[in-house]
């Protein structure tokens, strides 16, 4: 294989923001019984950013959010909001608001009373007219003007979701916390609400912290994503950075889909690792920091980085099309490669004449740019 | 099977139906119907003893049901926040209070109150100036209210607990998140949502207290409630007047029970 210079440029989003953070976690631990739900969380949230906690259920993402809201107190460490340690401040004393997964709208109040609830708790009291004006404005923002007198349980899921949003943003919180807010909506509505959420966040400029297990949601909405696992933040970065430069197989697997090829590192030079597979192949990829010769590792190649050809090319590997799924603008192939097993390949349709689409059972040759492959520690 | 069930209902409700029927009897004798009349109702309402007993019963039922509703609701809310074995113990004790036969509660309350009065009365007497008449605690409307409150409070707790358990806990969190203190959350979210259960508990308590004979018999002292009046007049023979009183009490109780059920069954607001 020819040596290809690998571009090891990392995005700068992990660098601390110059502005003071609006909220932060400092060495936060949370233990429930013998379960560690938060394991040394360190995080600064910049004003106005859209941050997501992404991970499977039980990874501690909701615990992190609930510690920001004040429903859980950290076992040790500090939670800061607007420069103040808020560990001992009750939820009702914190300038944050939450949108709950189940919305948690008050069933005995109409839409306007639900939205005005937080405003009515203010002391000194706000004038009625002022509350009505703010509620009207919030309804306008979530496009529910005219729904003031509706009973909440008469509304659709999407509308309830917007009422829940309005009830939170009307208070102009320092942080808006969203706990899987779109999980209860159907797919189409979820897409719509994602766009609305993003617009809303740009429009009002409040810092959003979202918890989700849906990588697509996190990728499409967030400025920055914290990938969590077993109570720890294992990687933080902007969506593209996480997708292109995952630091572990776990992140590569959780953020997007990837093909993984196990092997052992033969040598590392200039940031390029050569991986020997059990079947005797030598594969190259950008080396994860800390990898050295002899380490167990795996090579990660995104399905869209694998190219398929009818004829052999230098460095290409032979295989057979095992399955083909037509997805409109893309076609997804499952290619069986004798030494590597099944590989997912995503081929764009654009610019490809019809005769170039491959049929099931057809022999093909595959290759990829080693600069686009990553050698990662197996975990 | 159907015939069997029919017989059971016949056995249960025939006496009640007969009482209602004969309360409208124009004649004096329970053996024969002599045409329709409301004279026994008129007589019952003109009888000062009946009216006195009714007044006592209404006061006791209203005050004890009110106390039971307030105390029972507070207890239910408190229990809701409890965890672990202590909660299980309290839950058990509440159900026991409902299941214990009235006669046991009656005797136990009587003994307890008499014992307490025996201790307190000399104490009170010693605190008063010698030339004044010290107050004497004794059985009466107070002990009636106390005994009924204790018994019906358990009912209110069970009903309110069921409602509280069906409330989403996240509503309390949402309220706290929206700057409401625990007290404000209770007043603005919890209380309005459990209000139907409290009202139903009040109505049930009222009915139980109003209808109760056994406990009242032990602790009423010289007071006469309507059931006690009915009991004592029966010893002089069942008159159509008693039938009329019985019918009124039955209809009123049934109405209250039905209203309570309707309130509890009303579609919970999502």
From TrEMBL, chain B:
It comes from Roseibium aquae. One of its GO terms (cellular component) is plasma membrane. The chain crosses the membrane at residues 7-26, 58-80, 92-117, 137-162, 183-207, 213-232, 244-264. The lineage of its organism: Bacteria, Pseudomonadati, Pseudomonadota, Alphaproteobacteria, Hyphomicrobiales. GO terms for biological process: transmembrane transport. Residues 54-260 form the ABC transmembrane type-1 domain. It is found in: Cell membrane. Its main location: membrane. InterPro entries: Bact_Polyamine_Transport (IPR051789), MetI-like (IPR000515), MetI-like_sf (IPR035906). PANTHER family: PUTRESCINE TRANSPORT SYSTEM PERMEASE PROTEIN POTI. The keyword Cell membrane applies. The keyword Repeat does not apply. Belongs to the binding-protein-dependent transport system permease family. CysTW subfamily. Keywords: Cell membrane, Membrane, Transmembrane, Transmembrane helix, Transport. This is ABC transporter permease. It is a multi-pass membrane protein.
């Amino acid at each position: 294989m020819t040596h290809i210079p690998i571009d090891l440029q990392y995005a700068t989003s992990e660098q601390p923001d110059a502005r003071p953070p609006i909220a932060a976690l400092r060495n936060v631990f949370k233990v429930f019984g013998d379960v560690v739900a938060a394991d040394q969380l360190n995080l600064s949230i910049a004003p106005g950013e859209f941050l997501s906690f992404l991970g499977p259920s039980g990874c501690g993402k909701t615990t992190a959010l609930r510690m920001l809201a004040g429903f859980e107190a950290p076992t040790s460490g500090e939670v800061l909001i607007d420069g103040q340690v808020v560990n001992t401040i009750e939820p009702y004393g914190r300038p944050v608001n939450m949108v709950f997964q189940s919305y948690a709208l008050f069933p005995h109040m109409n839409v306007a009373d639900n939205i005005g609830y937080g405003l009515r708790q203010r002391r000194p009291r706000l004038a009625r007219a002022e509350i009505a004006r703010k509620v009207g404005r919030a309804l306008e923002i979530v496009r529910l003007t005219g729904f003031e007198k509706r009973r909440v349980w008469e509304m659709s899921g999407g509308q309830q979701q917007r009422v829940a949003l309005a009830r939170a943003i009307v208070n102009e919180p320092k942080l808006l916390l969203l706990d899987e807010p779109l999980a209860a909506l159907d797919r189409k509505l979820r897409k719509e609400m994602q766009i609305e959420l993003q617009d809303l966040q740009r429009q009002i400029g409040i810092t959003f912290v979202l918890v989700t297990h849906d990588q697509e949601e996190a990728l499409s909405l967030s400025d920055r994503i914290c990938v969590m696992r077993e109570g720890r933040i294992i990687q933080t970065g902007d969506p593209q950075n996480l997708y292109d430069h995952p630091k572990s197989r776990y992140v590569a697997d959780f953020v997007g889909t990837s093909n993984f090829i196990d092997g052992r590192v033969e040598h590392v030079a200039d940031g390029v690792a050569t991986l020997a597979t059990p079947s005797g192949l030598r594969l190259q990829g950008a080396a994860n920091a800390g990898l050295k010769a002899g380490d167990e590792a795996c090579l990660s190649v995104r399905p869209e980085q694998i190219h398929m050809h009818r004829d052999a090319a230098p460095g290409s590997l032979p295989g057979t099309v095992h399955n083909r799924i037509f997805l409109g603008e893309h076609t997804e192939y499952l290619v069986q490669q004798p030494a590597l097993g099944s590989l997912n390949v995503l081929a764009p349709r654009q610019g490809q004449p019809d005769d170039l689409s491959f049929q099931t059972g057809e022999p093909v040759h595959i290759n990829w740019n080693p600069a686009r492959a990553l050698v990662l520690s197996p975990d | 099977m159907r015939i069997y069930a029919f017989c059971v209902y016949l056995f249960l409700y025939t006496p009640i139906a007969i009482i209602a029927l004969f309360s409208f009897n124009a004649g004096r004798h329970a053996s024969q119907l002599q045409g329709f009349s409301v004279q026994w109702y008129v007589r019952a309402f003109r009888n000062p003893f009946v009216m006195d007993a009714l007044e006592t019963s209404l006061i006791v039922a209203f005050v004890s049901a009110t106390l039971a509703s307030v105390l029972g609701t507070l207890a239910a809310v408190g229990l809701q926040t409890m965890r672990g074995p202590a909660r299980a113990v309290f839950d058990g004790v509440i159900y026991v209070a409902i299941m214990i036969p009235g006669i046991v509660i009656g005797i136990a309350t009587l003994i307890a109150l008499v014992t307490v009065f025996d201790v307190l009365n000399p104490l009170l007497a010693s605190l008063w100036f010698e030339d004044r008449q010290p107050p004497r605690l004794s059985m009466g409307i107070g002990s009636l209210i106390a005994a009924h409150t204790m018994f019906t409070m358990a009912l209110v707790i069970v009903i309110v607990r069921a409602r509280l358990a069906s409330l989403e806990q996240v509503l309390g969190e949402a309220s706290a998140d929206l700057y409401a203190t625990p007290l404000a959350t209770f007043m603005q979210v919890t209380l309005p949502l459990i209000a139907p259960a409290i009202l139903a508990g009040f109505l049930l308590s009222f009915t139980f207290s109003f209808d109760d004979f056994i406990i009242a018999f032990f602790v009423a002292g010289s007071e006469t409630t309507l059931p006690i009046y009915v009991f004592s007049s029966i010893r002089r023979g069942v008159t159509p007047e008693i039938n009329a009183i019985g019918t009124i009490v039955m209809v009123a109780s049934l109405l209250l029970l039905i209203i309570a059920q309707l309130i509890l069954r009303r579609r919970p607001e999502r």
